[in-house]
Write a structure and sequence with these properties.
Elements (H helix, E strand, L loop, with lengths): L27 H11 L28 H4 E3 L5 E5 L8 H13 L6 E5 L16 H28 L7 E3 L2 E4 L2 E4 H5 L32 H6 L14 E5 L8 E6 L1 H4 L4 E6 L2 E6 L2 H10 L1 E5 L10 H7 L13 E3 L2 H6 L3 E9 L11 E7 L2 E6 L4 H12 L6 E4 L14 H13 L3 E4 L2 H7 L6 E9 L5 E9 L15 E6 L15 H19 L3 H7 L4 H14 L10 E9 L2 E12 L2 E12 L6 H20 L5 E2 L2 E2 L17 E6 L18 H9 L12 E2 L1
Parallel strand pairs: 2-3, 7-17, 15-16, 19-20, 23-26, 23-27
Antiparallel strand pairs: 1-2, 4-5, 5-6, 7-10, 8-11, 9-10, 12-20, 13-18, 14-15, 14-17, 18-19, 21-22, 22-23, 24-25
Helix pairs in contact: 3-4, 11-12, 14-18, 17-18
Length: about 700
Amino acid sequence: MTARHDETFEVERYELSSPPTWRFALERRTFLAIFATVGSGLLVAATQARGQESGRPGSQGSAPTDVKAWVHVSEDGRITGYTGKTEIGQNIRTSLAQAIADELHVPLDRVSLVMADTDLVPFDQGTFGSLSTPRMAPVLARAAATAREMLIDRAAAQLGAPRASLTCDAGQITGGGRNVGFGDLVKGRQLTGVVPADAPLMPRSAWTVRGTPAPKVDGRRFVTGEHRYTPDLTRPGMLHGRMLRPPGYTGTLTTVDDSGARGMDGVTVVRDGTFAGVVASSARLARRAASAIKAEWTVPDGLPTATTLYDHLKATASTAAGGRGSTPTQTGDPAKARTAAARTFAATYRIPYIAHVPLEPRAAVAEWEGDRLTVWTGTQRPFGVRSELATAFRIPEDRVRVIVPDTGSAYGGKHTGEQAVEAARLAKAVNRPVKVVYSRPEEFSFGYLRPAGVIEIAAAVDAEGRLTAWEFDNWNSGGAGLATPYDVPNVRTQFHAAESPLRQGSYRGLASTANHHAREMHMDAIARALGVDAVEYRLRHLTNDRMRAVLQAAARGAGWPKPSVDGRGLGIACGTDKGSYIATAAEVSRTDNVLKVERLVVAYECGAIVNPDGLRHQVEGAIVQGLGGALFEAITFANGAITNGNMAKYRVPRFKDVPSIELLLLDRPDLPSVGAGETPIVCVAPAIGSAARTFGAVADALPVRFA
């Protein structure tokens, strides 16, 4: 069979299927006001649909086609782009500005972006799935190209010169020995027009700004600490909020005595159903006040623990629950092929929960002005959070404004807006702006985690060692990356949704990380059992030229099959996700019972490269994050509480854990650019696991520890 490659960019969003964290009491006067507004008839309070990604449904979610919705040219000749995408450290502020600058033929420093302000930018579903480059960059580029052509039309009329004789460069249009600047062409006039869906863009060969290692826009502000993240923001008269929460990740509030907090000067206690929080003049006082509240919580008996988790996931699984891949995908008859096979290979792989651990925890500043709400918060879905706020407070969305400052990372962990809702409820109670910043334990226990999972693979080979059957079942961790890129005549894959005891959601790479890990470890095991070189064995089953190219490049770069130093182990893995291709080779050493990752060689191809430096940073960041999941990151829990939910107990990669990283970026100017933030993470763990097997260590249950 020809290998199938997922180019649909379908994404999983477990966290959006959860009910709202808080359901506030509806005051009688509020209900009557709403009823009076809508008039007679049936009043239906809408809640967010299961799995819905966008902040609002229907036609409001379609992209506008007016140039001025995307690009503005001011009278001083400066260019402003508008996008609902958020800057969360992936540097799209720079790469999107490059697209605009290139098409308008202006220097990059002439372009600025307004991002993720729901009052100012077009509707956007959110920043996820490595979609900003393949989806948003062309939108802004077409708008800029359309604006350029409109400016040339105006210049032709103003200069009285044939249009074909005009040239556009550095914000000037020249012809007939005369020139006119962009600013002069728009004085007293708006640049209004429709962006054609097929507006021609510059070919890759004509790029002058894209394709260059442009420095990070506003980079100095971040390096010097001048940039203000949400936790740094202040508003006139602002107070600080803190929530009352159960001691673990779950629990029902049974009794509460808040007299201790109410007796503190400068403290306001806010109660609304099961919602309880405090507002104080300082963050320190708010923490003290919350600690002074005496509360009792009921935690259900018999909750799964980290040791019983995997049995629980299989026992509670149901394909009827839906989800990507829940309907089996089958080609041929794998069961029959396994019966007739020369050899069969079956294994189970267990995937633990992992925390996002963003540099910036959840935070929000909320301010009410009458019945209008403004919230500043770090989120990947500003319009989605706007919908959450509108639903929580029963107000129209046009009375809610969400502003997202450039945010200190997210990794898929900031799709929801619980911190915004909490800050807004506290602010409403005191009629003052309120800031809420999650502590690290709160971030672990009341955010959401990368899903845990169980993956079972059954494969078969013929007498020549060629794969004849491949069956792949994933319980709970997700369907992204479920399909195999290898050529196998008989294949069945399926995802089984299960009841997760912990709140789970999107994580960098989604389930592709788990599914690539299991698949590549299994391919490695088969090759070793057959006594065949791991690279050669993969190439036997790969007809996709792009996959073959990255695999061969990584192998050459690593000196396959010999490690650079005697006594070290060398492993390799390859994969594809979201339209890009990755291969990772890992070199591992062993001293006594300690393994250490010494070197990683990574070949990556994501179409035409927009910003080489930005791409390198994205790939390296994904690799370093992947080290944590490969070596030591895993959430442990028991009795309704996470037992390693703070930075003293939860190990993330440190500087000493980072090996030498050699990147081989394969530029494909003949192909469209795709996103690079996620795919590079997917092969880190299986490459290291493959190398560890050199020392007889199986990565799923290592008998040795990593340094």
